[in-house]
Amino acid sequence: MYILRFANWRPQTDAILGKHLFSRISRPIREVFLQYHVFAVGPLEANCAVLFESPSGDAVVIDPGGDANTITRFLDEHHLTPRYFLHTHGHFDHVGALSALKKKYPDATYLIHQQDETLAMHADKTAQLYGLQALPATAADAYLSAETSLQLGASQITVIETPGHTPGGVCFYLNEENLLFSGDTLFQGSIGRTDLPGGNYDQLIHSIRTKLFGLPDEVVVIPGHGPRTSIGAEKKHNPFFRYM
Ligand SMILES: [Zn+2]
Ligand SMILES: [Zn+2]
User: Is 122 a domain residue?
Assistant: First the structure.
């Protein structure tokens, strides 16, 4: 497990002061923090991220792909209440812990793109192809699309549709925090594989070029596997885009 957090992330602008969540009360405005922790879960070491706001304890779990106990222990130890389980796509290494988490936190909303829902519901079968085990996901509570925008305290999470690795692949973007969760669409120095069912190389390249590389260079990218990177670094060094 490795931990990332907004190390110096004090509310530096007015906007980050919880959009004045507490400004209507006469007490001094309290500071609101957004933090995130990333765990490498399951045998394929998928990056599962817990984003949470202090002091409310509201949390979002991105890609609970395995090791449900590690994730729930973290949530419990930090007194967090998961509001959403979000999935970048339906591959078993990104959905494997969903049903266990849903059982423990039935009030949290499970969201995935409609085109990847079936893939997630067959996570057990696809895991078997790798000689691994995973629990299938349940039916989604709601679907993600380009119109989806979710609120976590003062922060807004928007959905960017990036098909190519899977038909229903998406990325999660936090505009004010300059943060992108790119799933298996974009990695440090690489891109997602497209040889699995539903994969499409040209579509993936197009998604990254037109959707992700339009974001500011300084946006930090947390990929679905491996170390973090930035949009600027990938535009410059990623061998798949060197001649763009
Ligand atoms: Zn994948
Ligand atoms: Zn993956």
Answer: yes
Q: How far is the CA of 44 from the centre of ligand 2 (A)?
A: 7
Per-residue pLDDT of the chain (244 residues; tens, 9 = 90+): 333 333 333 332 322 323 323 322 333 344 567 889 999 999 999 999 999 988 889 999 999 999 999 999 999 999 999 999 999 999 999 999 999 999 999 999 999 999 999 999 999 999 999 999 999 999 999 999 999 999 998 889 999 999 999 999 999 999 989 999 999 999 999 999 999 999 999 999 999 999 999 999 999 999 999 999 999 999 999 999 976 5
Domain containing 49: what range? 14-241
Query: What is the rounded CA–CA span in Å between residue 13 and residue 148?
Result: 25
Ligand nearest to the CA of 199: 1
How many separate domains does the chain show? 1
Q: Give the DSSP letter of residue 56.
A: T
Check which CATH number belongs to the domain holding 133 and give it.
3.60.15.10
- Within 8 A by CB and 6+ apart from 71, the residues are 39, 41, 48, 50, 61, 64, 97, 101
Rounded distance from Cα 30 to ligand 1 centre (Å):
40
3 found inside a domain: no
- Give distance in angstroms: CA of 43 to centre of ligand 2: 10
Residue 24 CA to ligand 1 center (angstroms) comes to: 44
* pTM summary value: 0.87
Ligand 1 centre distance from Cα of residue 128 (Å): 15
